[in-house]
């Protein structure tokens, strides 16, 4: 179905899954990528053996020594070239993302645009890796801090954003002087191979060494190698809270650095002062976009009792208009879940909603028949629940939207929103300035992202992305997230012939 795109991206019918750049090799087990769109095999890669992994790391270490000595603006030029090539290949790579992962073609294109945007951001950043100048208490002394490259940055990504999250990390890490080692999800290995082909060609044209960007393919065991490896200075891991806890413990055990982007249980508060048209659009896209498989997907809608029925009726009517089918057809709003295992989790969650006392307003179903042969297409669900239900307290990666009623002031809604273990994204729909400002204050949302009059999903790269509590506390992408990819050093210079000590201490000889 996408043979032309695979050819343009350098992916043959079967391709090794380990690379230090332009050199591809692998001897491990076969990993076959099946499209959730039609259930067909796209291509196969080979997983990385432990011996091959060590070879990749050794190559990356050598590359790191050379790469860190290249001036940061020159490193930015390589990232600029990456962004330019992504502009050329945007429709091609976007289609592969859509077909291998199952998100709509528009979202696939949007994901590649995120890659382009972070490259643009990183290029400017390459001339702005600023430290501070600090006034010393000692005469004739100057203090400042500066930032140095870490070395190897390991990037472990999830299936739902098979290219953008790598780019968030890689673009920043590269301009900071690090080299990158990518372990993609075994559910979307071809997207990673495509990206590695793109950047490897750029590095080769610029006569840069193998190992600046590398890929290793495999399952959780491969990720464990990265987490345990003292040669990997920073492990940036995106995925479930369960996975993140394992990574955090392992990396902390060797006193390494980790950056964790984990689960979300995101809510939109709808107050009596909300614009209902905006609310419905934001809630529906947040709940069904990417078939509910974004970490920022809207899981909960916390609605004031005075407008609850009106919002509920509008949502039910809107869900009747959702078109489900081939994500490459732009008429469809929602594509498939990633695989049949995700479908099983979806059906189990619906059963638990009913068992725990919830009421289904829009019934779910696994779709079958023409166009749904993969068995991965489902209907989006709306359910009335209580916030304390066990199933509501956990994250289900599926298009299930929970409606929760609140009464009284917005403080009560904020308390409900915060009363979950996760803390990624949040939003409030209101035209009331006091409600909006309270939501953004230290008495408001406890999430890493808090929005007013937009949904929980669709963050821009200019802001730092990440969350609190069981979301892991990491920050990627914009703002000053770049500092996580560098080691900070404080420097003091004495330009006198005296040696005064700090805090007025005297030590005379």
Automatic annotation (TrEMBL):
Enzyme active site: 261
InterPro entries linked to this entry: Ald_DH/histidinol_DH, Ald_DH_C, Ald_DH_CS_GLU, Ald_DH_N, Aldehyde_DH_dom, ALDH7A1-like
Signal peptide start-end: none
GO MF annotations, alphabetized: aldehyde dehydrogenase (NAD+) activity
Pfam families: Aldedh
Database matches in PROSITE patterns: ALDEHYDE_DEHYDR_GLU
Keyword annotations from UniProtKB, A to Z: NAD, Oxidoreductase
Documented EC number(s): 1.2.1.3
Taxonomic superkingdom: Bacteria
Domain Aldehyde dehydrogenase, residue spans: 28-490
SUBUNIT field: Homotetramer.
PANTHER family: ALPHA-AMINOADIPIC SEMIALDEHYDE DEHYDROGENASE
Protein family (similarity comment): Belongs to the aldehyde dehydrogenase family.
Name by which UniProt lists this protein: aldehyde dehydrogenase (NAD(+))
């Amino acid at each position: 179905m996408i043979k032309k795109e695979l050819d343009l991206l350098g992916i043959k019918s079967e391709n090794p899954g380990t690379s230090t750049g332009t050199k591809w090799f692998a001897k491990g087990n076969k990993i076959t990528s099946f499209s959730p769109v039609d259930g067909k095999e796209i291509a196969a890669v080979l997983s990385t053996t432990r011996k091959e992994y060590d070879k990749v790391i050794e190559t990356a270490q050598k590359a790191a020594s050379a790469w860190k000595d290249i001036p940061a603006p020159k490193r930015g030029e390589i990232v600029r070239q990456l962004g330019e090539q992504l502009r050329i290949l945007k429709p091609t790579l976007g289609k592969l993302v859509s077909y291998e992962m199952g998100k709509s073609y528009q979202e696939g294109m949007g994901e590649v645009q995120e890659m382009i945007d972070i490259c643009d951001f990183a290029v400017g950043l390459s001339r702005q890796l600023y430290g501070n100048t600090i006034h010393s208490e000692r005469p004739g002394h100057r203090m400042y801090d500066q930032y140095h490259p870490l070395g190897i940055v390991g990037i472990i990504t999830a299936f739902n954003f098979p290219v953008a999250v790598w780019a968030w990390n890689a673009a920043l890490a590269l301009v900071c002087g690090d080299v990158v080692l990518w372990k993609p999800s075994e559910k979307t290995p071809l997207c990673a191979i495509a990206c590695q082909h793109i950047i490897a060609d750029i590095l080769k044209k610029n006569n840069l060494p193998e190992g600046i960007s590398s890929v290793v393919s495999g399952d959780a065991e491969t990720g464990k190698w990265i987490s345990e490896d003292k040669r990997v200075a920073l492990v940036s891991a995106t995925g479930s809270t369960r996975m993140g806890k394992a990574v955090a413990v392992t990396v902390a055990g060797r006193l390494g650095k980790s950056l964790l982007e984990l689960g979300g249980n995101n809510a939109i508060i709808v107050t009596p002062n909300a614009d209902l048209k905006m609310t419905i659009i934001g809630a529906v896209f947040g709940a069904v976009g990417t078939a509910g498989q974004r970490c920022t997907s809207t899981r909960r809608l916390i609605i004031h009792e005075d407008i609850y029925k009106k919002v509920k009726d509008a949502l039910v009517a809107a869900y009747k208009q959702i078109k489900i089918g081939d994500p490459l057809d732009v008429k469809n709003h929602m594509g498939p879940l990633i695989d049949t295992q995700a479908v099983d989790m979806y059906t189990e969650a619906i059963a638990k909603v009913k068992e725990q006392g919830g009421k289904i307003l829009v019934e779910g179903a696994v779709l079958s028949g023409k166009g749904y042969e993969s068995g991965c297409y489902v209907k989006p669900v709306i359910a009335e629940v209580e916030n304390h239900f066990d199933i509501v307290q956990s994250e289900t990666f599926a298009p299930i939207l929970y409606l929760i009623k609140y009464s009284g002031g917005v403080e009560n809604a904020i308390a409900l929103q915060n009363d979950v273990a996760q803390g990624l994204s949040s939003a409030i729909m209101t035209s009331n300035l006091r409600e909006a400002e309270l939501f953004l204050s230290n008495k408001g949302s406890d999430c890493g992202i808090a929005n007013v009059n937009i949904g929980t999903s669709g963050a821009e790269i200019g802001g730092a992305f990440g969350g609190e509590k069981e979301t892991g506390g990491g920050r990627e992408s914009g703002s000053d997230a770049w500092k996580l990819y560098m080691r900070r050093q404080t420097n003091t210079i004495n330009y006198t012939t005296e040696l005064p000590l700090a805090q007025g201490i005297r030590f005379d000889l």
